[in-house]
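In this section we walk through a basic example: taking a raw amino acid sequence and producing a predicted 3D structure, encoded as discrete structure tokens. The instruction is simple. Fold the sequence below.
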Amino acid sequence: MVQARKYAEASTVLRRDMVADAKELLAAMGIPWVDAPSEGEAQASVMASEGTVKAVASQDHDSLVFGAPTLIRNVTISGKRRLPSKGIVINVVPERITLSSVLSTTGLTREQLVDFAILLGTDFNPDGFDGIGPVRALKYLKQYGALEKIAELRDRLPSVDYQAIRELYLNAPAVKGVVPEWRPPDRDRLLSYLVGEHSFSRERVESALARLRTPRVAPSETLEKWFG
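The resulting token sequence is shown next.
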């Protein structure tokens, strides 16, 4: 069972038609969305830094490395979660992490936080540096100040284009200047999409639309409440 679950998770993919469906549903509900021209985490982080949005909701800590002031994790997966590889069940609750607290707690600068991420591995250098974990990475940066000054890594640095990775994180790749525009749910569009195209129960959709007009959602509730 554990092996089957691992293979199932590994085979999970997000297809283009799924993305298109999500955009159509959000638009019909009046919820704005942004098609990031490059890194989605970068787009969201810049919007948070500019105050366009209050926080970035993501499971990926890269948002903090991109400079997001606030990261919210576990927004839609609160509850209990089984870790097949460890054979345990853990409690998963929403988590709020601020960049200022991370920098204050670690004693790192934003630039050093980027180097810290590169040492451990990022989307742009997934393997990081072999043999270096969080404790050693923090020790090196406290001692040397910057990645290229770490004597123990001098022979290994040429294998990683760390300057380019730094640039990506400190000066985010192409992002759009966006001001989200919220709209009322489009009842006819939702009915056409959910009932007409995807065979949802009209009664359930009408009931959900009625709740959307007067939303009263407890903090522990998730989106599944509306269409579950």
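Looking at the output, two observations stand out. Strands lie at 56-57, 70-73, 79-83, 88-92, 95-98. DSSP finds eleven helices and five strands in the chain. In the next section we compare this with other chains.
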